[in-house]
Design a protein that fits this description.
By secondary structure, the chain is an all-alpha fold. The longest helix has 35 residues. The chain has one domain. Helix 7 runs antiparallel to helix 8. It contains eight helices and no strands. The radius of gyration is 18 Å and the shape is globular.
Length: 189
Amino acid sequence: MATIMNSPSVMRAPSNQRPWWQTLISGVTAVIVGGILLWAPAKTKVEAYLILIVILGIYWIVEGIFNILAIFADRSMWGWRLFLGIISIAAGLYIVMYPAATAIALPKIFVLALGAWGLMYGIILLIMAFKGGGWEDAILGVLGIVFGLALTLNYYVSGMGLAMLWTSAVFGVVGGIVLIIRAFRQRSA
């Protein structure tokens, strides 16, 4: 009986984070989306623009699902994770179902909605960072708040759609790299 109780699998502490591979997939997806937004040569074409919008919608759906699945691995702050997951999935589904409408509404409604999402996401991540989430959550939270403020305070300005693309691209690349680093740190721990 003492041998069983002292085995490493029994004494392992529960993790406060979702599985490392989910974090890695989120990070790689964010870097890919951010890279497309920054460096795609055909980003001025309508087809590329619509593809980027659909990719963003798919990313939000996947991220929302991962946030909800993380509840099963760690029940702390499950309400915030569920809320963030539902909001991400709803926004992603809308974008995937209505990419043309989203593209047309981008300068006003979409930018404002994206800014509100960025603010909520950033605030939730900062709360999670202060409750033991780590420096990665703090960086992503600050980026989310800056991203959200940049969009919500200037959504009415002409050309904000272009600014949204650049802001999303930088957020995707930097945030994705942070998530990839976090995933490998989780795996080694």
